[in-house]
Design a protein that fits this description.
The complex is a heterodimer. Chain A is about 20% helix and about 30% strand. Chain A starts with 13 loop residues before the first strand and ends in a 14-residue tail after the last strand. In chain B, the strands form two sheets. In chain B, strands 3-4-5-6 form a four-stranded antiparallel beta sheet, with no helix packed on it. Chain B has a two-stranded antiparallel sheet with strand order 1-2. In chain B, a hairpin with a 4-residue loop joins strand 1 and strand 2. The longest helix of chain B has 9 residues. The chains are: A alpha+beta, B mainly beta. Chains A and B meet through helix 19 of A and helix 1 of B.
């Protein structure tokens, strides 16, 4: 037996295939073809969750993707559990394990339901702006943790997701979204013309609303038979791709749509080789939207009690799943489709206690059919109250008199309420296409207007509710002309109501829900209006209506109507919030696809990486590069290793892999003129074989990059850039070359990966390299500091630079990257007897800081000028123009209180400052005192036997000699401002 | 993701190959020196932010590497034309 509420026959479930499942630990039996929702209802279970804010008991409002209440956690092993799934879309499988969410200690007895009894206003609209404000500090300690505990969705699994997710690009002549009547007609018509067609639908079974029809006839056959033959025909066609279980969630520019296909979540034992979900990125020539319509709830007191559901959901459960939503139903309707629900429930064996029609006059085929079936009904009748906390027990009905007052209040028993306020076309995707919506004042619905994209809306999403007309519309949109559909027996939406139902209750006490998922009531929206929110954008943010994971699918129009009534303005004057992707939540796994783990981002390694790894180097990430950070010996930590490496470089020599430096070859007859315009320095007179420190500004005058630049020939420069700046600098150069100085004959080539760069730095550098070099005289006179020679090293062609980023005698050996490791190892072998020691980026940082050499991005942040860094000497004073020159005269850049680069020495030499720490005059400044600046670099200098730091400080140059402070938690560190150079001020070691 | 027609490659290519590069037709003054601070500030920082047709620069970074211009509707994201750097903005009747 698959549940007491199962009908004896009918529905699209397989009665021969019972399935065991559990919900909150209790075992149940459902049928193949059930959703978790229909299987629970078949077992008489309606209480499925607790609401977000008030922890009110909640049941199933809907039967599809618009469900706001029934969010569950589906447990699977090994990190495969998924929270926040809509039970109405979870397909039942053998052994399914489901849990309710947001309740403690249990679903039936939730202590936090006390929120529901809180004084009116405590959790009302904008409560987080108004309550929980005092006392100071209590928010973090008390209120926020409490709110986080009480308000919430499911819990994400802790283990990493072991599944894989696929991405696929696809192209289609026609993409049809939605496989209901109109969508199927469109796909059939398009496919018959021979073009490529994709048809996707969010449900496991295609057919849309037709699957819920009992008496509908299309072209002489039942609706379900018509669906079956349409799908059979489409399956035979090689130009058609059918995608069930596939949500079209986003509509982007140029007819580009994102579809999320669920591949295995409906299976008891998925094959781990099959992706769990697939993201389709579809570019379509034509898009046909056949996304249907979503039914609106009626807003009456306690309309959220388990057992209250949309009339369409009651139909789905009864007709598609063969499940009675209850034994005795009250149908509350403002639309003719409510009568269709009553007839279907009646046929399924649910007693109809009353059809209460809100409208004073009812008419239509549904009404007529229910009347001839003898179902009890009344016009101008509303539900004024609902009794039963965890399941509807009784309702209080009343009759609206001509003055709009409720009379004749009386209670009747029922265990299910099927309600309908009419239908809202699902224009979400149309709106995402940047389409303009038009307002149909007669029917009070928004309809698709014009879209800049090649798309057509057909069927209910276009406001075409009549079945035959919807089929014809789909057929025409698919390019068909030959066929005329006939349809009968379907009861089309007509009528409808927007806003809050009149009630006799105390408006301050009743809770009539508009947004079920975010617990927003009619009262909240009226309160927001009273408090000055007059645009729907403000009302939405203040009340959070429409901001839950269901994005207000069932609530938007009622919210608008209540605001409209409160403001006494027509609905279109209040505005409409923007529909944004995704239509339903999309998993991170689907969006990430294979771009995770090793495939998340490329890793760049230098030719020497393997050697450093074998030596046990620790690495750090610099952009996409892995750089050797330090080379620990035995039990050395970072500091011990760096101290040893620094000492070696200053006393003997150090070996450093500088291959990640960006390198750009600037070539052509106008190369020098180009350099002249892109860098601040003069270049025309730089001799061949000489190097210069180049400073690059952006047009606003701020330092952008720097590096040593060598001239190889009159028309050829070897430019180096910072490691992280290489692509940016090349793009900047290309931009000016292509668009501002196109007359210059210059070619730019990135050579970063072509060269390995081996820095040998220290007093013994020349001694170590000389025996390895052919054709280059390394003597100080032949090859002075800042010079460049071409020749051979270890038999390999080299560009040998005599440069230093350490303040020591230094060389940078450039060799083709393929020879990088061989040459590195040869230099290391030759140098080891001299004490040559490999060092990493940390030692490089310390050595350069001792000399006050800046690092772009550390001493600069995009707002620092050359003058701030005391680099005025690098600016060609006689140059007429260069990028950024004019900006250096702007008043803001000449201000005397700018932050300037200085050195800092802590009064206690043992204290190493924290980088980023703020600098103030006072040791304990008053709260709100602006900082003078911040520490940009800070290290322990083993060479100097003390700490050193660089900083940007307002009027820093004028403060040299002053004592300032770095306030830290519990202590203020006293510091002395100095020149930003700590070691070998005259620079004699460079010229050794 | 947009499909963008590179006027140099003469192909429609996916947006992933391109990098946006700001408003088009903002020429750097040939002689910046005599400009007033106000005029120079205008050139540096003031850009149009139209709702509708916008002439903007793109670079085919992961393709030919060329900068070119593009007329795009900022509301609909519809691209009306792409054209080579240095060419005048085409007249488009919307």
């Amino acid at each position: 037996m698959s549940g007491l509420m199962r009908t004896p026959a009918g529905g699209r479930v397989d009665r021969a295939k019972p399935l065991n499942f559990t919900f909150d630990g209790r075992p149940y039996i459902g049928l193949a073809g059930d959703t978790l929702a229909s299987a629970l209802i078949a077992n008489g279970v309606h209480l499925v969750g607790r609401s977000f804010k008030y922890h009110r008991p909640r049941g199933f409002l809907a039967a599809g993707s618009e469900e706001p209440n029934a969010l569950v956690n589906i447990e699977r092993t090994g990190g495969r559990s998924a929270p926040n799934l809509r039970a109405t879309q979870v397909e039942l499988y053998q052994g399914l394990v489901a849990h309710s969410q947001n309740r403690w200690p249990s679903l039936a007895f939730d202590l936090l339901a006390l929120n529901d009894l809180a004084p009116a206003g405590l959790f009302g609209a904008g409560f987080y702006y108004k309550t929980f404000m005092a006392p100071k500090g209590a928010w973090h300690r008390l209120y926020e943790p409490f709110i986080r505990r009480t308000a919430g969705l499911g819990v994400a699994p802790k283990a990493a997701d072991p599944d894989h997710y696929a991405h696929r690009y696809a192209f289609a002549d026609v993409l049809v979204v939605g496989a209901g009547a109109a969508g199927l007609a469109a796909a059939l018509a398009a496919a018959e013309t021979g073009v490529s067609v994709m048809l996707c639908d969010e449900q496991p079974e295609m057919g849309g609303g037709l699957l819920d029809e009992r008496n509908t006839i299309i072209d002489g056959v039942s609706a379900s038979a018509w669906v079956a033959s349409a799908l059979a025909r489409l399956r035979t066609m090689s130009n058609v791709t059918l995608l069930p279980r596939t949500q079209a969630f986003g509509y982007y520019a140029q007819n580009f749509l994102g579809l999320s296909e669920r591949l295995v979540d409906h299976l008891a034992a998925p094959d781990a080789k099959v992706p769990r979900e697939r993201l389709w990125k579809v570019r379509a020539k034509q898009v046909v939207l056949a996304t249907g319509a979503i039914e609106r709830p009626l807003v009456f007191p306690d309309n959220d009690r388990p057992g209250v559901m949309l009339a369409s959901a009651a139909r789905t459960y009864a007709n598609r799943h063969g499940v009675k939503p209850g034994q005795r139903a009250v149908v509350f309707t403002a639309d003719d489709t409510g009568y269709a629900a009553a007839l279907d429930l009646h046929a399924a064996g649910t007693e109809i206690a009353m059809i209460a029609d809100l409208r004073p006059i009812a008419a239509g085929p549904g009404y007529e059919a229910a009347k001839s079936a003898g179902l009890p009904m009344a016009n101008a009748m509303v539900i004024n109250a609902v009794s039963g906390r965890t399941r509807v027990k009784r309702v209080q009905l009343g009759t609206l008199n001509v003055n709009g007052m409720l009379t004749d209040l009386h209670w009747i028993d029922c265990d299910v309420i099927a309600m309908t306020g009419g239908w809202t076309p699902a224009v979400h995707l149309f709106s995402q296409s940047r389409g303009k919506l038009t307002y149909d004042a007669n029917r009070q619905i928004y309809l698709p207007g014009t879209s800049p994209q090649a798309l057509q809306s057909v069927g209910a999403c276009n406001g075409t509710f009549d079945l035959a007309t919807a089929l014809a519309e789909g057929h025409a949109a698919g390019g068909g002309s030959a066929h005329h559909y006939t349809a009968s027996g379907a009861i089309a939406p007509s009528g409808g109501f927007h806003g809050a139902v009149p009630t006799a209750g105390n408006p301050q006490k009743i809770k009539a829900f508009v947004d079920f998922q975010n617990d927003v009531t009619a009262k909240d929206i009226r309160l927001a209006v009273r408090e000055g929110m007059h645009s729907i954008e403000h009302i939405k943010r203040y009340t959070t209506t429409g901001m839950a994971t269901d994005q207000g699918k069932t609530s938007n129009m009622n919210g608008l109507a209540i605001a409209s009534a409160a403001l006494d303005k027509p609905i279109p004057d209040i505005g409409l919030t923007t529909f944004r992707p995704p239509f339903t939540p999309v998993t991170f796994g689907t969006l990430a696809g294979h771009a995770r783990g090793d495939l998340f981002d490329p890793i760049r390694r230098t030719a020497i990486h393997g050697w450093a790894e074998a030596q046990g180097a620790a690495f750090e990430d610099v952009g996409q590069w892995k750089r050797a950070w330090y080379f620990p010996k035995e039990n050395e930590d970072l500091h011990a290793a760096v101290n040893r490496e620094c000492k070696a470089a200053r006393s003997a020599a150090g070996l450093f892999d500088a291959s990640t430096l960006g390198k750009i070859e600037v070539v052509g007859p106008d190369a020098a003129e180009f350099m002249e315009r892109l860098y601040t320095n003069p270049w025309h007179k730089l001799g061949v074989g000489r190097c210069r420190y180049g400073l690059m500004l952006n047009e606003a005058g701020f330092v952008m990059d720097d590096g040593v630049i060598g001239r190889l020939a009159l028309d050829r420069f070897h430019v180096t850039t910072t490691t992280g700046g290489a692509p940016r600098v090349l793009a900047h150069m290309e931009d000016y070359l292509q668009t501002e100085f196109p007359e210059l004959k210059v070619w730019l080539t990135s050579t970063t990966e072509q060269w390995s760069v081996i820095a040998v730095q220290g007093p013994k550098a020349r001694e170590i390299l000389a025996p390895l070099v052919e054709g280059i005289d390394l003597s100080p006179d032949a090859m002075p500091h800042m010079s460049l020679r071409e020749g051979k090293i270890c038999g390999v062609p080299t560009r040998l630079f005599r440069v230093s980023f350490t303040g020591e005698l230094g060389f940078e050996v450039n060799v083709p990257a393929d020879y990088g490791r061989v040459v590195w190892e040869a230099i290391y072998a030759a140098g080891a007897p001299h004490g040559l020691t490999p060092y990493g980026t940390e030692t490089m940082h310390v050595l350069r800081a001792e000399k006050g050499y800046i690092i772009i991005g550390q001493e600069t942040d995009g707002t620092v000028t050359p003058s701030d860094l005391s680099l005025d000497w690098a600016i060609g004073k006689t140059k007429k123009d260069f990028v950024g020159k004019r900006s250096l005269r702007r008043p803001d850049l000449l201000k005397t209180d700018r932050k300037q680069l200085v050195g800092l020495l802590t009064v206690d030499p043992k204290v190493v400052l924290e980088e980023g720490a703020q600098i103030t005059v006072e040791a304990s400044p008053a709260t709100g005192t602006p900082a003078l600046g911040h520490v940009t670099s800070s290290y322990w200098s083993e060479t100097l036997g003390r700490s050193i730091a660089l900083a940007l400080v307002a009027e820093g140059k004028a403060r040299i000699g002053q004592t300032l402070h770095v306030p830290m938690p519990g202590i203020a560190v006293a510091i002395q401002v100095t020149e930003p150079i700590f070691f070998d001020k005259p620079g004699v070691r460079l010229d050794a | 993701m947009l499909l963008i027609h590179c006027p140099y490659c003469e192909m429609d290519r996916p947006e992933l190959e391109f990098r946006y590069a700001g408003e088009a037709h903002v020429a750097r003054p040939l002689d910046p020196d005599p400009l007033t601070d106000e005029d120079w500030g205008q050139f540096l920082y003031l850009r149009k932010n139209p709702k509708g047709l916008h002439a903007e620069r793109w670079r085919h970074t992961n393709g030919c590497g060329r900068f070119f211009n593009c007329l795009r509707d900022t509301v609909s994201d519809r691209i009306f034309a792409t054209y080579k750097a240095g060419q005048p903005r085409p007249e488009i009747a919307q």
